[in-house]
Amino acid sequence: MARIVLENLTKSFGNVKAVDNVSLEIEDKHFVTLLGPSGCGKTTTLRMIAGLEAPTSGRIYFDGKPVTDVPPHRRNVAMVFQDYALYPHMNAFENIAFSLRMRKVPDNEIREQVTNTARLLRIEHLLDRMPTELSGGEKQRVALGRALVRKPAASLLDEPLSSIDAKLRDEMRSELIKIHERFPATFVYVTHDQVEAMTLSSRIAVMQNGRIHQYDTPINLFHKPVNTFVAGFIGSPTMNLIEGRLSEDAERNTVTFEGPDFLFPFPVRVEDKYLTGKAVLGIRPEGVVVQEQEAPGSYKTELYTAEIRGEFTILKLKLRDTILTSRIESGRPFRKDMWVKFAKGYLFDASSQLISTF
Amino acid sequence: MSINSARQGEVLKKTALFLVSILILVFTLSPIVWMVICSFIPDPELYQTPPLFFPTKLYIGNYQFLWGTEAVELTGGTPGVFAAARNMLTSVGNSLIVGISVTVICLILGLFSAYSFARVPMRGSGKLLFYVFFSRLLPQVAILVPIYVIIQALNLLNTLLAIILVHTAFAIPFFVWVLFVYFKSIPQSIEDAARIDGCSRFQQLRKITLPISKPGLIAASIFAFMTSYNEFLFASTLSNTIVSRTAAATLTAVAQGMGRYSVALFMACDVVTILPPLALVLIFRRQVMEGLVTAFRR
């Protein structure tokens, strides 16, 4: 059990800064996810927590104790790798038992702990098998067992579900939630899959280019993204982001967003300093409300494409040259000409930071 | 119909493959078989027409001569040759000492060298690796004289140590290459997992990396051994006294001096010489194949 603190962590490979001044506090027994596109530095951050990679600068603390220079085998962390990394010359039992053997745990205790862990992961019947005789999902469970058997201070998971097929991934995702309940330890999870991140985590750090954009709960990430990157990365289909500028009608004390193809009177007053610059209007697909009739404040659009997904339908609508994504309920009819209203949206400034929401 | 003909084609292909394999086997093995047969025939009977393909009784006089229990009447040899032949067993022993020493040194040095090339990021390690192999591309004769001069200066002429040093230099590039490729084929994450599971770098090497690399290690070791065991030019030049010769050098000395009427004895010397490597390859043939396949797949 450990509270993990990263302080101004930087890792450079030659001239490339893989991780750039990252600070993060991970509470004890929390499930925290590092989320970002590939090459964003999330795996490097995880490897620094594990001790497999030495930071170029910055410090790491476990429960207040500095561990920056402690080698991985003295950190009491466990790790699950993307390719499982089972020891090919040992059977499943020995794979799980290995860390206990390294710590000279007596044989009868090893047997007991491995069997207990295997029971919780439902792999008791696989313990005699060699890694080559296991399926992807089974290997995954053995790898998890290896990480969980010794009650580590923290379990680090590096895209553990990315190399198994979609159906099994869904299963293992809910399994992981259960596992975290049964083994209440600090979990640090790395993924590029926002669904995994949203469903599993108590908090998510969204990363890009080695930096953390936002470290927050899944709900806050969705409803209060700090900038356009987070707004565009979280949520599916992705948020409509329209570049334009802000202008002010001083008499009527209102602010108008001037998009390339339309004007949108922003319903919330923003600070004066934003009033002359560029701005980005963000509307989630469910905030683009489609209507059959023209109504005040609505815009006429033309249907571009329609994707019927079953549980809902995605419409791409052309507002002159701007393409808007809208999400409507399944089975609802749509036609060529429709009107849209913006029900819920975000406003970002020239440097992509969130100004206001409505 | 078409299924039948397809099956016929399959059978034909297999038969052809089988026949070709047999042909290759006959081609490569017949001299060895002939050698073994000849070694069990008394020398005078070797020159009968038609030749004796299958001797009727096992004659072990040639071997007894090597073991020094019976003085076979031999004629036609130059002086000293019989003494050389009598020393065949010592020479095989020398070859084994040299070969095993070379293998052990290769194991110790090559192992760490190959692991460093495979895992430790160093500036210019790729170039360095190239030059390690480059040394094997030079014609050996070209460096014979320089090496002779060096060994002479070191006062090591006519010692086994001289051969061990030179053979190690010859064997280690290939050894490093085979192991380097093998280490590279092990996913980094397995080593990371071991270190997280509580291994220091050295424990991880000992408990995880080396056991996984066992086929590669065995294949590389056997090749190092064979490189040394088969080498003739340097062994015979650097160490050419009757007691310090390796098997390859003694065989040549015997063959050159013996003349016509002791071929059977020479064959017996041959058989004694090929026994140790033959045993090695037979014992470890699975690992040799596996190691080679990994080494050349990349």
SSE order and pairing:
The complex is a heterodimer of chains A (358) and B (298).
Chain A: E1 4-13, E2 16-26, E3 31-35, H1 42-50, E4 57-62, E5 65-66, E6 77-80, H2 92-102, H3 107-121, H4 136-148, E7 154-158, H5 166-182, E8 186-191, H6 194-200, E9 203-208, E10 211-216, H7 218-223, H8 228-233, E11 240-249, E12 254-258, E13 263-266, E14 278-283, E15 288-291, E16 299-308, E17 312-319, E18 322-329, E19 337-342, E20 345-348, E21 354-357
Parallel strand pairs in A: 3-8, 3-9, 6-7, 7-8
Antiparallel strand pairs in A: 1-2, 1-4, 4-5, 9-10, 11-12, 11-14, 12-13, 14-20, 15-19, 16-17, 16-19, 17-18, 20-21
Helix pairs in contact in A: 2-3, 2-4, 3-4
Chain B: H1 2-39, H2 61-67, H3 81-86, H4 88-119, H5 125-137, H6 144-153, H7 160-185, H8 188-196, H9 201-212, H10 214-230, H11 233-238, H12 247-258, H13 263-283, H14 285-297
Helix pairs in contact in B: 1-13, 2-13, 4-7, 4-10, 4-12, 4-13, 5-7, 7-10, 7-14, 8-9, 10-14, 12-13
